[in-house]
Amino acid sequence: GQSLEQPSEVTAVEGAIVQINCTYQTSGFYGLSWYQQHDGGAPTFLSYNALDGLEETGRFSSFLSRSDSYGYLLLQELQMKDSASYFCAVARAGSYQLTFGKGTKLSVIP
Amino acid sequence: DAGITQSPRHKVTETGTPVTLRCHQTENHRYMYWYRQDPGHGLRLIHYSYGVKDTDKGEVSDGYSVSRSKTEDFLLTLESATSSQTSVYFCAISGGSEQFFGPGTRLTVL
Prior knowledge:
The structure holds two protein chains of two kinds.
Chain A: E1 3-5, E2 9-13, E3 18-25, E4 29-37, E5 44-49, E6 53-57, E7 60-65, E8 70-75, E9 84-92, E10 98-100, E11 104-109
Parallel strand pairs in A: 2-11
Antiparallel strand pairs in A: 1-3, 3-8, 4-5, 4-9, 6-7, 7-8, 9-10, 9-11
Chain B: E1 4-7, E2 10-13, E3 19-25, E4 31-38, E5 42-51, E6 54-57, E7 64-70, E8 73-78, E9 87-94, E10 99-101, E11 105-109
Parallel strand pairs in B: 2-11
Antiparallel strand pairs in B: 1-3, 3-8, 4-5, 4-9, 5-6, 7-8, 9-10, 9-11
């Protein structure tokens, strides 16, 4: 089977940096994705890592270590609008399915 | 934004009645998915499709069926709705490593 673990809640101050971790167990691992979902909205794609290392997209970065079965999403210069739930998801080789973690609710406070 | 719509957006129904949810895309993507989202469970895959008339089960397929007679439409049917199927249902499409989600359908089964 597959499993993903991420913290259920994180609180951070506006302007600060926050890291949301994700550990996974899966056979045939292919890549790790991150999605953002605001309350009442649909999930939206943030990033995808298939190789070890850091991928940067503006204020958001995502990291993957395949040997540690671990990844994280880094949000810099936090803004109030970043308050949302963040999901990691694993893709398996030969499959177009994703398995999602249960999500991390990020609250950004003034 | 990816052209993906869901209908209806909200539905209240009674236990034992059949319900069909529709997902429509204008992106000509091969892969389509149905997820349900419940508090504490994240996004769980119900069924997915990898082409017209080609579908397969996901993690939580019991009580659900799907059909895809055209590339653009993916239907999810609850043959006899139960209260445990009260949830928010999301359709998604994919042409690669990224999934695009529809706006969701909030279904309440009384």
